Each structure stands twice: as C-alpha cells, then as structure tokens.
Amino acid sequence: MTVPLRPVSAVTALTEELRRRVLSGEIPPGTALPEQELSAAYGVARPTVREALAALVHEGLLRRERHRSAQVAEVTGEDLDDLMFVRRPLEDLMAASLAGRRVAEADGALERMAALPGDAPWSDVVAEHMALHQALIVAVGSPRLERLYAALAAETRLGLVRLRDSYADRDVLVAEHRDLLDAIGAGSQEAARRAVAAHLDHGWGAPPGE
Q: Which residue ranges does the record assign to the HTH gntR-type domain (predicted)?
C-alpha cells in the first residue's frame, strides 16, 4: 500500500533543514545566519529565508536583535544549570504522578530511538528524546504542567546538542532511558522520583572539558 506524499513548501523545507543543522551541531552556537547568504546557498527567495528564520526564532533555536542577522542561540553551562533547576521539580511531579504506569507513547519514542541507524543525524536522536520526555509529561494530564514544560523546550533541545559527544554510543543513551521508563513503571513512587533525579543529574552534567 502506498502512502500519498505530503507536499512541502520551500519555507517548511528550509526550516526543517536549518533546524536539523542547528540541532546536529553542524551550525555552532553564536553563528550568524545572514538572509542573503542563505538565499544564495539554498536557491530560494529572501522572503522564504525570512519566514524560515522567523519560525526558528519562535522555537527559540535562533535569536535575533533589531537590524542584525539571526544567530544560533547559545546555551552556556550556567544556562543548563538554571534549566535543570527549573526542570527538576517538573519532572519530579511527573515521576510521582506516573509511578506504576507504562506510557505507550514514551515506549514508542524509545523504540524509535533504538531503531535509528548508526549514522542517523544527532537531530533525529534529539527529536525522539524530546518525544519521550514530552510523552511522560503529557501522560500526567495536567495542562499547566505541559505549558510550563513546553516553555523550556527550545533550551532543552539546544542543551541536547551539547550532549552529542557524551553519547557517541547510542546504545548507552537508549539503555539509560529504558532503565528510566522501567523504574517509573515498576510502581514505587519514591524509586521513580529517585530514578528521574538521577537521570537528570547524570545526563545533564557538564560535557567533557568544562
């Protein structure tokens, strides 16, 4: 059975390509993205570039000041520390609420992550990592928790870019998340909360050399 192809606009295609390059680390933090250069490089009109950049600014992956080119947002070690300061209580609420439950959507994201080919771009890993954690938050059933967590999504994605060298072996990342989901599903609220806290502390430590 064939699946109809989904038409993709030039804006959507460029947005997805730039997003992939930013999340893979191919375009480093702080890099300026002049509209004229992108227009020439991708063979698209400047209004198309402008819309794509605006979408990524809205996502928090780029930052733009008046009369200056958009730049890839930078997330420092201090930013990550503060991000974790805010994320920990939200994830703790999630762990306490979901203890004893399996979340099918989170399990599905984990299996997709495990099935990625060895040469898959890091941006694909980031997408499944985000999907897994988002599925856990959504499963709690609190719209306010979802909104708070969503507000951190852009910085979380950028933070994950910094972790790509720490997880050269994809199996390690998969195993860590499998252990996390198993701990939450096992039934003990305290064990689930400890597992989530340990996961955040380990996974978001400073990258080597910092």
A: 8-75
The pTM assigned to this predicted structure is: 0.77
Residue 191 contacts residue 207 (beta carbons within 8 Å):
no
Give dist(CA 31, CA 29) in Å, integer: 6
| CA–CA dist 72, 30 (Å, integer) | 5
CB-CB contact of 149 with 134 (8 Å) = yes
Contact 56, 62 (CB under 8 A): yes
Kindly report, residue by residue over 113-159, the tens digit of the pLDDT: 999 998 888 888 889 999 999 999 999 999 999 999 998 888 888 88
pLDDT tens column, 18-68? 988 988 888 988 999 999 999 999 999 999 999 999 999 988 889 998 889
**Torsion sign across C-alpha atoms 110, 178, 99, 146:** negative
Give the domains, in start order, of the chain with CATH numbers.
10-72 (1.10.10.10), 77-203 (1.20.120.530)
Whether the CB-CB separation of 174 and 118 falls below 8 Å is answered with no
d(CA 195, CA 69): 42
